[in-house]
Amino acid sequence: MHDPEARISTPLARAALEQVWNPVVVLRAIRNPEGGVIDFEYVEANSLACQLNAVPYELLIGARLLDLLPSHEADGLFNLYAGVVDSGVSLELKDMAFDAEVIDGTVHRIDLRATPVGDRLVVAWRDVTEVSRAREQLETAEALRRHSLEVLFDPHVVLQAIRDAYGDVVD
């Protein structure tokens, strides 16, 4: 099923793909007889994409997306990809939760771009987990600072009980 024509074959194009700082893959839509997208096939990838998918290049090319990343169906990413190919409109997601099942099984945060090229999809992403955590910590610290300042400037009243001769509070 692998389409050798889909690969980036010129040395210049291949070298350019390897210079990208982010993982990049090219997927080809696999359609049912009615024309609906039922899966995607990996037709090209840079070495960083292979490393992050924990699959050697030779095994990644020709593999199906949902075989490698079945969670894409449940998390809706597969449907988004199919929509991009069908509509011809690019997709950009920021700070998206991503179940990194092939990396370490934890949830990462990623920025992702998917650009259609006919029945193919060029997908690039970057892990922004640490940036997202740092932003959350900064927001938490800022909220605590704001609350502390609000409390600090709230009026405070010191009251002293007035007692009668028996020591009971009367006012």
Structure in words:
Helix content is 37%, strand content 27%. The chain has a 5-stranded antiparallel beta sheet with strand order 2-1-5-4-3. The mean pLDDT is 85. The chain has 171 residues and is an alpha+beta fold.
What topology does this entry show?
Elements: H1 11-19, E1 24-31, E2 37-45, H2 47-53, H3 57-60, H4 65-68, H5 71-74, H6 77-87, E3 91-100, E4 106-117, E5 120-127, H7 129-152
C-alpha end-to-end distance: 90 Å
Share of residues in strands: 25-35%
Count of beta strands:
5
> What series of H and E elements makes up the topology?
HEEHHHHHEEEH
Strand order of the largest sheet: 2-1-5-4-3
Please supply descriptive tags for the structure shown above.
5 strands; alpha+beta; single chain; 171 residues; 37% helix; 5-stranded antiparallel β-sheet
Entry summary:
The protein is built from seven helices and five strands; from the N terminus they run αββαααααβββα. The chain has helices at 11-19, 47-53, 57-60, 65-68, 71-74, 77-87, 129-152, and strands at 24-31, 37-45, 91-100, 106-117, 120-127.
